[in-house]
Predict the 3D structure of the following.
Amino acid sequence: MQEHIFSTYAKPDTLFVRGEGVRLFDAQGADYIDLTAGIAVTALGHAHPHLVAALTEQAGRLWHLSNVFRIDGQERLADRLCAATFADRVFFTNSGAEAMECAIKTARRYHWSKGAPERIDILTFEGAFHGRTLATIAAGGQAKYLEGFGPKTPGFTQLPFDNIAAVRAAIGDQTAAILIEPVQGEGGVRPAPWSFLRELRALCDEHGLLLIYDEIQTGMGRTGKLFAHEWSGAVPDIMAVAKGLGGGFPVGACLATEEAASGMTVGSHGTTFGGNPLAMAVGNAVLDVVMGDGFLDHVREMAKVLRQHLAELADSYPDLVDGVRGEGLLQGLKARIPNTDIIAAMREERVLAIGAGDNVVRFAPPLVITADELREARGRMDAALSRLAARPARAASGG
């Protein structure tokens, strides 16, 4: 019963009681192939034994410490993240939105510490999604998320996606940073051209701006590299990560260079639960797997398989599907009919997908998925689309 829960989600009709690998099981025992991974969260699938063992062992020793004390798992995870990335400093959070808040504060505080407190404006891009706090909905700029919450938090300007001329024209004396998702997830599984990221890096260097990446959805191996921006060679100054970092446990992090983090001094930011021992145990366990030999090779191979299956479905049902887009194991079908119809039909065939902007059906399966499991999912998706194709025609949705 859900009568006491906020009505902020459409009420689902399926109750899952167990998960194993890429499958979820409902109360009747039916299995569903999960191509959502909790929106790119359960990167190692459900009940991964290494994560279960790490969490169970830590739960028997120590759950919580205030950040006024040392937390050994936090120090280890920070060291490992910095060794694997551009970063020198890490601030741990509980979620992606909190990681983005830290990134925004870090950028503004950097310029304040350099004697330029007026530099607070952050340039973002149309279609972006950066979280649900007042600051992050302002950063995303989408009207449907801003409606009803009062004045938009100042300091954010949305620009056309992949338009370097518009970015250059928008830079002014108050500009602090540029913020972008290497692949827009909620915005329609829309990759930024790697050349565009390189151009943004050059603009930031030219004007003394900070480049911020939102890799909350695209990080932790989702595109076949540890972080999606690595494909471009354009490194950020600050990066927000979460979702797959905890494999299903609430973990987020804001990564930054020493220079970018130089304004974040004692007392300037804080968290009660961020970086707690339980979260750090799981985060380290996730890194054990994702950075293991051959893991990212597997992701890249499975990405090819998924892309091929989706392309075949698009070719087979041109009246329903307009094409395929995405990177790695973050892929989308651009629908010609309402994407909700396709998602519902697939759910009836016990394969789970989610919606995204621009009328896209989004797929973000666990990174451990196999070719056989993808083949089985393709069969179920084909059955769903076949049933839809047999229906009387109805108007396509614009979003």
